[in-house]
């Protein structure tokens, strides 16, 4: 048969939920931990939709000992009556057919966050087993599924037969109680991990509690020896969320809250500046966290920039003919939450998992509402307005100073790779995809690394001691710090508003420091710099931390390397014969080039930790607490965790 032949026999029709199991990433984004938690989110958001529709008041989320998750609400319960066109229960159709549910037509749900009838069935398809209990009309109905296929009919059972009777919410299941309960077992053949992470689930729940007032969330983790219970309920809405995001920071004013309903689009914005330099804008559409922004965020940023520029001209801080204040200046130290609600049948998300809003008509609506709200606030609160403007003008001044410093370097051709730092031992390879840069602590370790490396693809940049704490450092100060300037030049992608990730010279950037307190400090300083000023490197998956061995164990003629105390004990246990000696490596410089290559730089043997961001809010909080100016939160952290520290003294 010709390879170019294309006939009807080549067409494959996937029935029911087969497409989901065939291409799961198309529906949940990925099959790693992110995709796993996306499944949980889909089920939770179906319950949230019942609250948005005016019914559910409580949502229970339970992580069970057997690896399953149970989600329950006290809403109306999924309909169980027969659909004439299919001659099956509506419950079975919703759970086993794509694009079936109450969110397509008008009436059942005006505002929703679920996958419009896709979510429940997708989770069902990706679970080895799922069971549902529906309570309607003082009756209990159940159905069970395996990998998306119904294994039982919808069956009426006695309340005493409920599978919830052994769970912490059993006392809530009483005659007259309505709602839906879903339990699912993620399929290990689909997901790389089927273990739900408590911190991710709690963040997911907390976000929704902030966004939906009057809705109680009850979380139970039954997987440990003792049951963990956490409950969420917030009356303050997104203003409470902004205050939470600004925890441990010095706020410059009370939160600004703007609310307006335009063309059936409800817009809520909470804004509060702190004395830091980082921007933190979170956005939501119908409780969905649009992590990649979209037209609503674009409209918000445009309005903020215009409102501040107009106010600056109004009070004479800037004049006609001056360069306008740019968006980056207005967002330095900004914490904001933007939440909009709109009819589900007109929402246009980019991508199945809704990371970005695409509705073009939303941008001018949000922009006009925010601009009007800010103009009014600035007029009524001149002291806050001037405080914000002073913050913005300082950011503008720092940006222009940094620009001048960068232009001076650019004139030398440094940022374009014309003059690489003298300390950099570059690699021969010019293809960034296979090139590595080791950022090494000190000249001693740098010397060993330069001798032990594979020159073809491994570059070495030694650091001269501890670097600047960049948690609150603007670019003009960073450009004055020689070590950081060398690092920026070596990376080749620029910094600030000129960043171009395509010019990055290495796609594996590896922080390699000593396994002691000073080494950990330098590692934290570098992570702070990358997170605050070169975050796109982390987002691209290019940043790593090397894990050097802690011990060299010599038993007779054989040498073993151990990367933890547990490994050391295991080696000693398995090799008891003969005399042995143990060397504790305090620094990379204690290893000769061959040992450093063998243990920490050879791709065949080394251990690298890839740096990624699972929870932006938590990462921001930790960096603020560890590296910011506020001492009490850091002192509290040290006191709480001192007992877990292992120090070599």
Protein described:
By secondary structure, the protein is of the alpha+beta class. It is built from 20 helices and 26 strands. It folds into four domains: 18-232, Heat Shock Protein 90 (2-Layer Sandwich); 238-400, Ribosomal Protein S5, domain 2 (2-Layer Sandwich), CATH 3.30.230.10; 413-548 and 585-613, Rossmann fold; 616-649, no CATH class. The protein starts with 17 loop residues before the first helix and ends in an 8-residue tail after the last helix. The strands form six sheets. Strands 1, 2, 5, 6, 7, 8, 9, 10 and 11 form a nine-stranded mixed β-sheet that branches.
What's the quick description here?
By secondary structure, the protein is of the alpha+beta class.
Distance between the termini: 74 Å
Total count of domains: 4
Q: Which CATH first-tier class of the largest domain would you pick?
A: Alpha Beta
Strand count, sense and barrel status of the largest sheet are: 9 strands, mixed
CATH architecture of the largest domain: 2-Layer Sandwich
Q: Say how many strands there are.
A: 26
| Helix percent band | 25-40%
> What name is given to the CATH topology of the largest domain?
Heat Shock Protein 90
Rounded mean pLDDT score: 85
Corresponding CATH superfamily of the largest domain: Histidine kinase-like ATPase, C-terminal domain
Describe the global form: globular
* SS-based class: alpha+beta
SS strand fraction:
15-25%
Radius of gyration: 28 Å
Which segments are poorly predicted (pLDDT under 50) over 5 or more consecutive residues? 1-15, 102-117
Query: Total helix count?
Result: 20
